[in-house]
């Protein structure tokens, strides 16, 4: 078990390093922060002083090694906009993002899992067709389109909820429901597929032939085995909590990490963007690592196979 964990942690660290490295290079090749922050009318001396102050006048490989040397010392850089620590700037927005993403995750699980199981148990009936029709609609419609539709209905036509902002709990309803419905559609599709695969296994037919009640067969045999592949998509959704909020926060003017990322990219606030991408990478890699660990706990055979494959 220790060898298994060490192998997964090593791969996770390599993945995060690659994500941050790619972001570092792309950000510095995509535009000059001096022009965007100071404005094109600033004198050349101001541009030179800005680049020298932030180390942008050095070769990119020098900037790269200096950045990682600072990261290993706990320094993630300062915002070019206000000079504060980029970690502090991002940390101020995390509670607001969690305020909508965590309830959205609950909605995804509360709707998606039961819907997927029902669709599988009532395969090829009107129940299955209705659930899959709604699931496909939720899966294919972009989140910003769904958000705009919900805002049009509940904010403009009915006037029940505000269309944007973060002043009260009511402002969080529409962005939370938007992300929750999209994620529920994804979970429902994967849960249905996993359940159908399990229900077709010989041990399910054997359990039914022994005279067990169908609900006991489903509860004791089908659901536990279908949970293994379903963990994959749940882990992905947990890992993408921050990344998935980018579009929705922009649509509803929710001042979380997602909206901060959009503004920081537009303003070429390099340190802030890198901290957010590091946060996203750590979240996704951490969620995948947790899923792999749960795989080994739920089914030890998977852990043994992966250890053999890695050796």
From TrEMBL:
Principal location: membrane
Domain ABC transmembrane type-1, chain residue ranges per copy: 94-295
Membrane topology: Multi-pass membrane protein
Source taxon at top rank: Bacteria
Pfam families: BPD_transp_1, BPD_transp_1_N
Transmembrane segments: 12-31, 96-122, 134-157, 169-188, 228-252, 272-298
UniProt keyword Transmembrane helix present: yes
Keywords: Cell membrane, Membrane, Transmembrane, Transmembrane helix, Transport
CDD domains: TM_PBP2 (cd06261)
Keyword Cell membrane: yes
Location of this chain's protein in the cell: Cell membrane
Assigned protein family: Belongs to the binding-protein-dependent transport system permease family.
Name recorded for this polypeptide: ABC transporter permease subunit
Annotated source species: Hoeflea alexandrii
């Amino acid at each position: 078990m220790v060898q298994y964990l060490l192998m997964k942690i090593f791969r996770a660290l390599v993945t995060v390093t690659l994500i941050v490295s790619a972001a570092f290079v792309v950000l510095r090749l995509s535009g000059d922060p001096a022009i965007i922050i100071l404005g094109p009318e600033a004198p050349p001396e101001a541009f030179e002083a800005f680049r020298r102050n932030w180390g942008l006048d050095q070769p990119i490989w020098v900037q790269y090694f200096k950045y990682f040397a600072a990261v290993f010392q706990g320094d993630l850089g300062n915002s070019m906009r206000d000079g504060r620590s980029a970690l502090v700037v991002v940390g101020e927005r995390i509670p607001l993002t969690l305020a909508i993403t965590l309830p959205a995750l609950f909605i995804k699980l509360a709707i998606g899992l039961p819907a997927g199981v029902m669709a599988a148990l009532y395969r090829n009936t009107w129940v299955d067709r209705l659930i899959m029709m709604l699931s496909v609609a939720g899966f294919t419609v972009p989140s910003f389109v769904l958000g705009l539709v919900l805002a049009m209905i509940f904010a403009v036509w009915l006037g029940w909820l505000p269309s944007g902002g973060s002043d009260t709990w009511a402002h969080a309803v529409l962005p939370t429901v938007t992300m929750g419905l999209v994620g529920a559609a994804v979970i429902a599709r994967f849960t249905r597929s996993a359940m159908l695969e399990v229900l077709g296994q010989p041990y399910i037919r054997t359990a039914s032939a022994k005279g067990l009640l169908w609900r006991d067969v489903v509860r004791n045999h089908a659901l536990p085995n279908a949970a293994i592949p379903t963990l994959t998509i749940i882990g992905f959704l947990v890992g993408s909590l921050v990344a998935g909020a980018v579009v929705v926060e922009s649509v509803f003017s929710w001042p979380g990490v997602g909206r901060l990322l959009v503004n920081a990219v537009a303003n070429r606030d390099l340190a802030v963007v890198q901290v957010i991408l590091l946060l996203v990478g750590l979240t996704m890699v951490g969620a995948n690592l947790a899923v792999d660990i749960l795989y080994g706990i739920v089914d030890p055979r998977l852990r043994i196979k992966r250890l053999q494959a890695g050796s």
